[in-house]
Design goal:
31 helices; 819 residues; disordered C terminus; six-stranded antiparallel sheet; alpha/beta; eight-stranded mixed sheet
């Protein structure tokens, strides 16, 4: 015997019933079949609404009409597929049931309340009519059918509206009537009967529970739960797209998952099949050929350490604490006995090692009952300050790792808590089951999705995501977008996907939490009517539960740079081509790094110095290894490298500057390059990385124009006046040449001081041959003496700088893939 349960799916009702019949018929070839059916979609909701409306004195006829329409459409659809389907009989049964419902509701209206036994009869109507329709469908297909009346066979106990089934007593009833081996059995789910045969209902997931109970009563070979998903996943596939389908679960794993919120499982369903060792198969009605998930007693030889993640929302934590807790025998017993008497179920318990407090989680809908019960029980202790007032914290969720393999694995908890920390999820409490097959963390409910995503990534994920928000889409920003688009396939081979979720200039922005199309992004941005807003960007990240957001600043905007601390505090990594943040006050400089450390976010800025050259990373590595910077010389501007290199070739200073501007090496106004302030900022950043407490106004800057030169006027007026500086540079060049040297515009750090100046460089100096837009940085350190460590390469151009930003972006991947 195989017991098959069919519930609501996204299929239309007639199609769902036909699929259920097809699946059942295909199973007959293997063994006899018993079907358990739930009500069609929306029927039970309408029945609940009808009761509530009538109790409040409102007319419930619209709810009954909806139910009537659902079943008429179902019957019409089945008649269309099977001409011999007895639609007249089915419609008669529906009409009779609706008439009975109206009678019940009339009585409820008179009483202004609904007795539980009447409510049970009303709520079970949908399942009863499902059986009517399926019976006629199977008869139309030529099969013999036997309907099990659950009020006669399943012995319910406990609450009328939340009953459980006494399996032993129910088995005895089934054994009184031998099974008809040539029949398909049908039974409405959600329903049982008390000792007198009165209708009781089985509460949430009652139809699944009915199937498990029936399987136990009939000593079934298997219980199959047919739903609208392919089985049980490692976590919610609606949240994590690459969530893994689990082929097998042990009974204890299934029980843990159901207890901690797995959507397709419920503890009431798992208990009977686990107790009676009945395999349970979870399958998809829309994909009957799928493998599904098998719940059984055996564990896989290749057992994963962690099998699945679950999340239970809508929790409240209660904390009972005070000096009266210490050494007081039976205090914990009184707490939990009080909560139990109030009819409140406890999901998780944790106690401080000092015995000062006991904390436990309950469903928030029970919080009021628990508070009243505890305040009443401990009124005397609270009044005498032996206990502090009962503390309650709402809006929490429990995220749990589950797996049999966790019992023999080391470091699971550490990896779990590291994943939560990297997703900026704070822990309220933690607990581990004595079976060692589950670890739970109580967190803020608003961060539950981030917690699941981060934990899935570290335990199961092959794909790693970077969600990038680009601020500034000029030369460097535009080049970065094109590089990301070009490298998409290369990164995909390494299980990395960069989703550009936002692109903004100073006026407009594009946002999409799933990632923007980069095909015509510039045109899309130009046509956008969304004004640039950092608040909108932050809201998108918060509402989309993105766990690895990266802000990339390719502007030179002071205001943006001053907000990096806020970005880091909001959970963003920050990658900055913008040098302004690192050259602001020392207080801000230190605050940036402290915030990044506290929030476990990355602040990366390797392109601040040397464009695409790995200057900052190499310097940081040297210093971390115990090296110490003693002296530095460097050519830190691609534009100035080009201009002074042309002087070697006999070109005048004004001609070299004009050519550099025409080639796009300088800013549109070359005075920004010739002022030396860009080099001063880079030099200051290097000095600060080396541990020097300096500010920008302490950097000595010699402009790359003669002292007293009139640099006023418009850009064109300045360029027209620039030949007047040629003689000055020609003299400098001639003097340098006589000494076998060349002119270079360099930044220097020595004796704790920074200086930007024109210098005559001998042939033996590493900077002598540097020109044509190259950068070169010579680090003289404790380890690199007398020959310096030299980094050399092109330091100008959007492509090179964008490549450096790209490298920094990839460094924000904040966990390594587990093998």
């Amino acid at each position: 015997m195989r017991v098959l349960k069919f519930g609501g799916t996204s299929l239309a009702n007639a199609e769902r019933f036909a699929c259920a019949a097809d699946i059942s018929v295909s199973n007959i070839e293997q063994s006899q079949v018993a079907l358990v059916l739930s009500a069609p979609a929306k029927v039970t909701n309408n029945l609940v609404a009808a009761v509530q409306q009538t109790v409040r004195g409102l007319d419930a006829e619209s709810s009954l009409e909806d139910i009537d329409g659902i079943f008429k459409a179902l019957i019409a659809g089945l008649k269309l597929q099977y001409s011999n389907f007895n639609d007249a009989l089915a419609l008669t049964q529906v009409a009779a049931s609706l008439a009975t419902l109206r009678e019940y509701l009339y009585g409820v209206k008179l009483l202004s309340q609904c007795p539980e036994n009447i409510e049970a009869k009303i709520l079970s109507t949908g399942e009863k009519l499902s059986i009517v329709c399926m019976e006629q469908l199977l008869l139309a297909r030529g099969f013999k059918v036997e309907v099990i009346v659950p009020q006669d066979k399943l012995v319910g106990q406990g609450s009328v509206l939340e009953a459980s089934v006494d399996i032993d007593a129910s088995r005895a009833r089934f054994e009184q009537d031998p099974i008809k081996t040539d029949h398909i059995y049908l039974m409405p789910g959600f329903t049982a009967g008390d000792e007198q045969g009165n209708t009781v209902v089985l509460g949430r997931n009652g139809s699944d529970y009915s199937a498990a109970v029936l399987a136990a009563c009939l000593y079934a070979d298997c219980c199959e739960i047919w739903t609208d998903v392919d089985g049980v996943y490692a976590c919610d596939p609606r949240l994590v797209k690459d969530a893994k389908l689990l082929k097998t679960l042990s009974y204890p794993e299934a029980m843990e998952l159901s207890y901690f919120g797995a959507k397709v499982l419920h503890p009431k369903t798992i208990a009977p099949i686990a107790q009676h060792h009945i395999p349970c198969l979870i399958k998809n009605t829309k994909n009957p050929e799928g493998e599904g998930t098998l719940i059984g007693g055996l564990t896989s030889k290749t057992q994963a350490e962690v099998k699945s993640l679950s999340e239970l929302s809508g929790m409240t934590m209660i904390n009972v604490s005070g000096p009266g807790m210490k050494g007081m025998v039976g205090m914990a017993g009184r707490i939990f006995e009080t909560v139990s008497r109030a009819g409140v179920s406890i999901a998780l318990i944790t106690q401080s090692s000092s015995e000062y407090s006991v904390s436990f989680c309950i469903h928030s809908y029970d919080a009021g009952k628990a508070r009243l019960a505890l305040n009443s029980e401990f009124n005397l202790e609270i009044s005498n300050q032996l206990l502090e007032p009962i503390e309650m914290r709402d809006g929490l969720a429990i995220v749990s790792l589950v797996g049999d393999g966790m019992r023999k694995a080391n470091g699971i908890a550490a990896r779990f808590f590291m994943a939560l920390a990297q997703a900026s999820v704070n822990l309220v409490a933690i607990a581990q089951g004595s079976s060692e097959r589950s670890i739970s963390a109580v967190i803020d409910e608003s961060k539950a999705n981030e917690a699941i995503k981060a934990s899935h990534n570290i335990f199961f994920g092959k794909q790693q995501y970077i969600d990038l928000f680009l601020l500034g889409c000029g030369g460097v920003g535009a080049a970065l977008v094109e590089q990301i688009k070009r490298q998409k396939e290369f990164l995909a081979e390494r299980q990395i996907e960069i989703r550009v979720c936002g692109i903004a200039n100073s006026r407009q922005m594009l946002l999409d939490s799933e990632g923007l199309s980069l095909t015509n992004w510039a045109d899309d941005l130009g046509a956008s009517n969304i004004e640039f807003s950092l608040t909108a960007l932050e809201d998108l990240v918060k509402n989309s539960h993105i766990i690895n957001p990266v802000i990339v600043d390719c502007t030179s905007n002071d205001n943006l740079a001053s907000q990096y601390v806020d970005f880091l505090g909001s959970g963003f990594h920050v990658v900055a081509a913008n040098k302004k943040a690192n050259t602001m006050s020392m207080d801000y400089y230190h605050e940036l790094r402290l915030t990044a450390l506290k929030t476990r976010r990355r602040f990366l800025y390797d392109t601040n110095v040397g464009a695409g050259l790995p200057v900052i990373e190499n310097l940081q590595n040297l210093l971390s290894a115990g090296d110490q910077l003693e002296r530095f010389n460097g050519i830190l501007s691609g534009s100035m490298s080009y201009i002074f290199g042309k002087l070697d070739e006999g070109m005048s200073f004004s001609q070299a500057t004009a050519q550099a501007r025409d080639n796009g090496f300088t800013e549109p106004d070359p005075r920004e390059d010739l002022s030396g302030m860009d080099i001063a900022r880079k030099l200051l950043i290097i000095a600060r990385e080396a541990g020097m407490d300096l500010t920008l106004d302490q950097v000595e800057v010699e402009e790359a124009i003669p002292a007293g030169f009139d640099a006023s006027g418009t850009n064109e007026e300045f360029m027209a006046n620039l030949p007047k500086a040629d003689a000055y540079f020609a003299d400098l060049q001639a003097t340098a040449a006589q000494e076998g040297k060349v002119l270079r515009y360099i930044g220097q750090i020595e004796d704790g001081k920074c200086k930007v100046s024109i210098a005559a460089v001998p042939e033996s100096d590493p900077l002598n041959k540097v020109k044509d837009g190259e950068n070169a940085l010579a680090f003289y350190s404790r380890y690199y003496q007398p020959i310096p460590m030299v980094l050399r390469g092109y330091g100008a151009g959007s492509e090179v700088t964008a490549a450096g930003v790209f490298a920094d972006v990839l460094r924000t991947l904040n966990w390594k893939q587990e093998v």
